[in-house]
Amino acid sequence: MSKLSRRRIITTGLGAAAGVSGLAVAARLANQYGLIPPDHHGLYGVGETLTYASMRLLMSQGSKAREFDRGQITPVPHPNYPGGGPPNDEAFERLRDGRFADWTLTIDGLVTRPTTLSLADLKALPSSNQITQLACEEGWSFIAEWIGTPIFRVLDEVGVRPEARYLVYYSHQEPWWDSLHLTEALHPQTILAYGMNGSDLPLAHGAPIRLRIPHQLGYKSLKHLNRITLTDDLKQVENGLGSLHPEFGFSWYAGI
Ligand SMILES: Nc1nc2c(c(=O)[nH]1)N[C@H]1C(S)=C(S)[C@@H](COP(=O)(O)O)O[C@H]1N2
Ligand SMILES: [Mo]
To answer: 77 and 22 in one domain?
Structure first.
């Protein structure tokens, strides 16, 4: 049986199980295929699990988030810091004053060659542009053009160990951290953005590097990234919920 049709059967099976034999069966099926998000809450979480499962399967088939024309770019984009403002600690200000020449992005965990990249190293890898929408869970959104390095390019450089399943990412701005299933991290529209609307990424939008993942809500697109680590088990990382957000009532999986 081809991979594609097997996936179709799994998705259809999940939906049918939810409708016909009850949610518990759907949950068991999802679990069997590794489609349960790390912050699920038993039966209450099944709706989310199904959304997550169908998105995972769609993304693995290459579905793309909508891209826009240059004329649709929002003239004045809105920077959002629920915690206040951009980082203002001494270390950050020193890096900023040096135009981020000394900024580093560490990549470790389940990779074959743990690496630390400078901004220049990252820019030397093949880049990709996207004009996409950043949608905040608060209800507003804006469209911008981002340029950056697709994560799959970076992972090609460092080599992914076969047991890796999730990509965890950290901001210089503590306590922000988050994670993605590797399927989503490897999607061509998931990029490490260092430019926005034709300039370097502005400070308030995440300089010098932010994640852009147009398939999920804005809060997954962490700003001021400084570390990426690959793991096989999110339960072993930080709070065990895959992200800071579930502690505040936001789901780990924020697909749109
Ligand atoms: N480090 C860090 N990353 C962050 C945030 C933040 O406050 N700090 N806010 C998040 C939220 S809630 C949203 S909606 C987007 C907003 O991106 P913008 O500032 O470019 O509009 O960034 C996300 N990434
Ligand atoms: Mo947000």
So the answer is: no
